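Appendix B. Worked example

We walk through a single record from start to finish. Start with the input: the chain for PIG-L family deacetylase, Streptomyces tauricus, length 249.
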Amino acid sequence: MTHGNAPDTPRSTLVVTAHAGDFVWRAGGAIALAAARGEKVTIACLTYGERGESAKAWRAGKSLEEIKAIRRGEAEAAAAALGAEVVFFDAGDYPLTVTPELTDRLVGVYREAQPDVVLTHPLDDPYNGDHPAAARMALDARVLAQAIGYPAEGEIIGAPPVFFFEPHQPEMCGFKPQVLLDISEVWETKRKAMECLAAQQHLWDYYTDLAVRRGVQLKRNAGPNLGLAHKTMAEAYMRPYPQVTGELA
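Next comes the structure step. The output line below is what the pipeline stores for this chain.
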């Protein structure tokens, strides 16, 4: 544990996501796996994606507040399907602006969640500035939450490893898979969570196909004799900080 609680304290995962759907498409498998192991998963959802990622609702003539309510409801249902808790910041998207106030709120979430693992966006995305903004605040808040002199409630945290989940346009974001996570056993759970996001139904098949492709890569890198399922599903991640280990494996 990064926070020195009792040995029987469940592990904790913190996911910092720019929009209501991001945590499902990009990290739903990791979230479902952690929850299935009995770990606590907290999702810090900075915006509802109401302006930039809700075109279907805008075309249907919905108001801003109606769209926020729709996207919040979808995110709550998806998080429940995955076994996670979600905290909404309602910071406003397109643009999501990095501010000391938002970063400070995130510090509070870090100290309350005491995460062993942090998942968030990569720092580069030329198509959507909200994603790197969320990542920047996630990394900054992680450092501040470690500082004993930082004026925020709660116990300081350790240095939980950070994993960047895969962006929608990986080639354009400098994303190269460094970690391939087998999510085959929870794939149906992730798909169920994806189907909670009716506002972005056009992405259901895209992220299903991506999981298949990453599964093929996982099998190729794992070797042919590990008993993997014929149709292995996977998610890809990068690491911004070095892995700390006592054994190369």
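Two observations about the output. The longest helix spans residues 64-82. The CA atoms of residues 163 and 239 lie 5 Å apart.
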